Amino acid sequence: MPARESITCFPEIREPLLNTRSAQGKNTRVLPSPFDATDLGDLGPEESLPDLPDVSEVETVRHFTRLSRLNYGIDHGMYPLGSCTMKYNPKISEAIAGSFAAIHPADGNAMHEILEFCCLLEDCLKEICGMDACCLWPAAGAHGELTGMLVIKKAIALSGRKKNTVLIPDTAHGTNPASCAIAGFGTKSIPSGEQGYLTAEILKEHLNEDIAALMITNPNTLGIFEREIHDIAGLLHDNGAYLYMDGANLNALMGIARPGDMGVDCLHVNLHKTFGTPHGGGGPGSGPVMVRKELERFLPCPVITRDSREKYTLTWDRAHSIGMVHSCLGNMGVLIKALTYILSLGAEGLRNAATSACLNANYLKSRLSGYFDLPFSTPTLHEFVLSDLRQKDAGITTMDMAKTLMEFGFHPPTVYFPLVVSGAMMIEPTETESLDELERFAHAMETIAQMCLTRPEELHESPGTCPVDRVDEVWAARNLILTWGSFESNKGDMVSK
Amino acid sequence: MKIPEGLNYTQDHEWGKIDNRTMRIGITDYAQGELGDIVFVEFMEKGTQVAKGESFGTVESVKAVSEIYAPVSGTILEVNETLAETPELVNQDCYGDAWMVVIEMEDPSEADSLMDAEAYAEFLSAEAK
Amino acid sequence: MSYLCQTDEDLKTILDTIGIDSAQEVFSSIPVTLKYTDRLDIPGPLDEEFLRKTLAGRPSEGGFAGGGIYRHHIPALVDAVASRQEFLTAYTPYQPEISQGTLQGIFEYQSMMASLTGMEVSNASMYDGATALAEAALMASRLKGIRRIIVTRTTHPAYRAVLRTYLQNIRDLELVEIPFDPDTGRTDLRSLEEAVGEDAAFFVQQPNYFGIVEPMEKIAEISSKTGFWGMVITEAISLGIMKRPGSYDPDVVVGEAQSFGNPVCAGGPLLGFFCVNKNHVRRMPGRVVGMTKDHNGRDAFCLTLATREQHIRREKATSNICSNQGLCALRSALYLSAMGPKGLRTVASQCASGARYLMAALKDKGIQPLFGAPFFHEFVMKMDEKKRLALKDLGIIAGIPIAADYPELPDAVLITVTEMNTKEDLRCLLENL
């Protein structure tokens, strides 16, 4: 291995499962016990105590602290994950969201203020996107997509037209067709143009009476701005169809261009991407949906209304709404963090963030295009895609390169997506990276490209210094050990490779 | 790429071996290669009637799940139980021990439209382009 | 505030490397007609102190409100450990080599949820209990022959609303609602029995929305006549004392685990859970973590069964879910570890005892609950809306009015007691009633 700067080194920790530390009587926690014990026989209670590990507070803290040290996080270093926008998570957002922790949604007085903040967030998001109405309740991007497609389905149903199919470009995220299926649409994949963006000509070939909508991501997952989007919107509208935009890549557009101006009828945004709320190891995210005026009445319940006396209330009295999509008010804590972020940056800050995000990505593209194949020469914005074409001959796969990047202290980029590029590596540094960090990454990628020529075997072996080496996913799927209980009872029988 | 003679092939990469009124069915070497290490297989039960082109089961690897389609219509007579315990057999011996089901053919003439080994080989090279 | 970290010199280097003269040229691929030339009309930039003052949560007493979201004691260690940046800022664990912390944490969450529900498998979380129920109904609808989804009116109204939303465009699927017995507050078993059949899937909430304990033995018997059935648990704390749902042999147990270590936080983020037995594991939506070994034989964890998920199966996926409630699930694991078996039982018992204490005191004052059947820690009583608002002005949240969802129960209020209420709180409420 070449000498690598050990900026991020993992400690040597092997932490057994929590239940192996359990022993009766270890947990001596004292709990609030304001009430005298009463006879609870009428509950038909379970005789045995809940089946949980019995461990002390110290052991709980040490166990999970050790586990945390096996994780990479944004505060360690860059995550160049395309279409994920892994930007820095501001600490002030955490502090402010924390002050709302104790408020129960039934506390009308406290909630009034919160509804006011939600309205402010709605206004900001509508302004950024150039849209007319907003719903904050979808709990994630996919949830937002489903909500948006249900809105479109209802609008179409009410119009009496029969339109059952949604067109989806072949570069789309997997949630797009999956969301359409639940909303009751069939889907049809359409190819991107030769230059990596959808053209009005291609759309015309696929447009017919049955088409209800086109789902587009802009910029798309190749990082390319869909320059014909306005014409595409026109064609769709003439056909009585709608344009849905997946807003995952909004980070390239804040203050620069607005989906509403592009002809978008409905979109979702990802607060955990563009607006810097933490990913939490898989969630919670948030996927607010925005629509044009025409579609406003179909938005989910409840809707925040503001009367002339600045009084904010929730109303469920919406005759054409698609209904509720969440049992309460979505991921409220996440909404507050996103609002904090927007207000911290202001208009200038958001525009600068978008600009810097695109500059950083283009910088890396310039640095790396000498070593890696760039499948499209079309200009890109906040992310770009490399393929494994140049390294394939040395028998190196994108997977090998991704695993080796971990040796250099980076999380790999998004790999094998979009599907249209062989061995795709989608790279999005975001704006919160210094030139130092960008250079460190470029240097790592260059070194890997050189290793493909001089020491390819080492790439197959990596990673070597991470908490674990490449894992056996086949073994995992064949044995399906999904709980420690299953582990205990299957110790003898597990299928070996 | 193994494409044994004497078998019928479908465009969905299944093979069928005819024996009187029955057809033994599995997936081809190409299919198992594309899927990667097989982790799970599941079929409809014995006695189920399937139509030509209808899915009668799934084959799963870590990166994909594929439906398996009936090359001909009929009733499922036998199901290969060993694949539940040892799905990796599909990778190791897809034309032999990893046969999947035996169907009693409703209309043997349906097999006429299937490809022979040569035609399947041509089909594969055309697909590759 | 800006989180950029580049100097003017850095910018010059970047522009030179890219080969452009000014930063705005990076947007040359955007047609001029689509460029936004105005300044966004949004407030800011605001400094941290100003934000702390303006975006502050008002102190809230909490009172006696529940209804699917519950105030419970959260040991301090949960915040302390869950806020570690390695857990908080980590991405989805698609690269297992550098995500073992998240993966093992979620595996342990799955293990504990499976144990508590008495089922074999749990997924890595859903958005909330309502969408978990909706996904369970979708899962049932994909089974051969299921044409009807049956829920009882004792199921949380918001859950039924979300269910309606999710099912509205699913072909050939009917949603049926079963009435409740107005005396007991329980599901009308006769109606349920008449409604079920091989072509139906039914779901029952336990304890139900009124806080009432449903007669699960009888319901389990009825289930033998139906194609698929599930239990919905909106108050996870009840798993600390009530009979394990799995012992009734449902096909699925779903619900809300916000009570396990997640604050009420004005309504979210919440934590849906989804548990099945192994026979349904391949139909289960959402991510799931499995145990494996790495190439050196070392124990490791990774996401598994990914082939069911949206990024591979796309329109044929078991669900469209991608991001889930990962950090909330981790907080649950921390909570359950901090509480232990006795701790969880104590909390559950305290909640139930507190509610009985309040009930007894109300009866002493001549106030009867609306329903006669046993309850867990919530119950319904009649309370004049004027009275309720008067209590609100005194700073007492005296439950949740439910007449809007149950017009046949005018002035009905759902009152909840948890271990966070004190005898003093109760005295205050009683005095002012």
Please give the order of strands in the largest beta sheet of chain B: 1-2-3-9-8-5
> What's the helix count of chain C?
13
Q: How large a portion of the residues of chain C is in β-strands, by DSSP E? A: 5-15%
> What is Rg of chain B?
14 Å
What is the overall number of helices of chain B? 4
Q: Find the CATH superfamily of the largest domain in chain C.
A: Type I PLP-dependent aspartate aminotransferase-like (Major domain)
How far apart the termini of chain B lie comes to: 16 Å
What does this structure look like?
The complex is a heterotrimer of chains A (497), B (129) and C (433). By secondary structure, chain A is an alpha/beta fold. Chain A has 16 helices and twelve strands. In chain A, α2 runs antiparallel to α10. The longest helix of chain A has 37 residues. In chain A, strands 1-7-6-5-4-2-3 form a seven-stranded mixed β-sheet, with helices on both faces. Chain A has a three-stranded antiparallel β-sheet with strand order 10-12-11, covered by helices on one side. Chain A is globular, with a radius of gyration of 25 Å. In chain A, a hairpin with a 5-residue loop joins β8 and β9. Chain A has a domain of 252 residues: 3-Layer(aba) Sandwich (Aspartate Aminotransferase, domain 2). Helix content of chain A is 37%, strand content 10%. Chain B has one domain: Beta Barrel (OB fold (Dihydrolipoamide Acetyltransferase, E2P)), CATH 2.40.50.100. Chain B is globular. The model of chain B has no long low-confidence stretch (mean pLDDT 92). In chain B, β1 and β2 form a beta hairpin. Chain B has a six-stranded antiparallel β-sheet with strand order 1-2-3-9-8-5. Chain B has four helices and nine strands. With 129 residues, chain B is α+β, with helices and mostly antiparallel strands. Chain C folds into two domains: 260 residues, 3-Layer(aba) Sandwich (Aspartate Aminotransferase, domain 2), CATH 3.40.640; 93 residues, Alpha-Beta Complex (Aspartate Aminotransferase, domain 1), CATH 3.90.1150. Chain C contains 13 helices and twelve strands. A seven-stranded mixed β-sheet of chain C has the order 1-7-6-5-4-2-3, with helices on both faces. Chain C has a three-stranded antiparallel β-sheet with strand order 10-12-11, covered by helices on one side. In chain C, β8 and β9 form a beta hairpin. Chain C is globular, with a radius of gyration of 25 Å. Chain C starts with 7 loop residues before the first helix and ends with a helix. The mean pLDDT of chain C is 95. Chains A and C meet through α1, α2, α3, α4 and α5 of A and α1, α2, α3, α4 and α5 of C.
